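Quick start: read one record
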Amino acid sequence: MKVLLLTDYYLPGYKGGGPIKTIANLIGATSAEIDYKVVTSDRDLGDVSPYSNVDVGRWNRIGKYSVFYAESGLKGLRQLHKIILDKDYDVIYLNSFFSVRFSLVPLLIAKIYKKPIVLGPRGEFSEGALSLKAFKKKVYIRIFKLLGLARGVVFQASSNFELGDIKKTLGSHDKIFVAEDIGSQEYAKDLVVKDAAVIKLVFISRISPMKNLAYALEVLKNISCSAVFDIYGPQEDAAYWSECEAIIKVLPEHVVVNYKGQLKPSDVVGTLSTYDLFLMPTKGENYGHVIAEALCAGLPILIADTTPWRDLQGKGIGWDISLEERRQFVWAIEKASAMSTENYQIYRQNVLSWAKTKFSQPEAVNANKAIFKLAVEKK
């Protein structure tokens, strides 16, 4: 089967976060059976210049698949139109709902040529995501509904939670299927022993209101234990980062915060494995690849109950807590800090064992392959 996959950002980019990892993991797991052609932007999120190590405006062969890095402006739109017009694919796979360039325009063109379409909103319909730029999104959704653009489109939900979000946003639709994102297959080799005197916390994500770093910093105002909190990720929103910096300046002396810049995707699991606790009270994730990577690093996670990763305490791998319960975040950090070095090492080994079991299961791979077949059958 030939799949034409369109996405705003892809490798060698990494600032676009989870969707890049979602697509890379999907292709890595299924390219033996599916012929992928990826069409994406010629630059990373926030960059003003194109990549210097790819051929822009033409196909680049990468292993078993090809990537076309479309130029900016009208020239890039003409390139997209030509690729879709060539019709050298069985299914067109869109990886955003709100992207005009890489979803709406290709969707309209593909409908004209009556090609099967799969659309993965990638968490854009979560309550937290819809609350950002809410008016523009409401107008966009309204127009999408009025034009009947959902008709014939197969929607991919990465969890039952996202299934509910899609139905809540677009209404009843008989072509929504759950195909969980394919997680990391890299695991920590060594687990660093926790320092009894200070707990090392880590945040890895885009620095934007959606990822809720300011909330994490507010939590740290109230902890009584000594902590180091290292932050990794692109400063996507300058105004929001200034807000975070203001909170950092008034934190107690026993809490040290460091901004460590950006990480390459290949360095994430290895870096995470050197910490004690992953802290990211995100406002919403359809999957959360960095959460999966933290688990693969044998790292207990402390997140909000706004993701598919639930009942973490019951599983013995961390905590998922309501954002309304800030004191519970404080309690969880202090509980982790108070654990003995020996017991915490056992705890981390359990997290790593759980992750290896979870991510070795083939169900997600099979479901992702099946959704393309469903799109063709339901055309």
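Residues 341-358 form the longest helix (18 residues).
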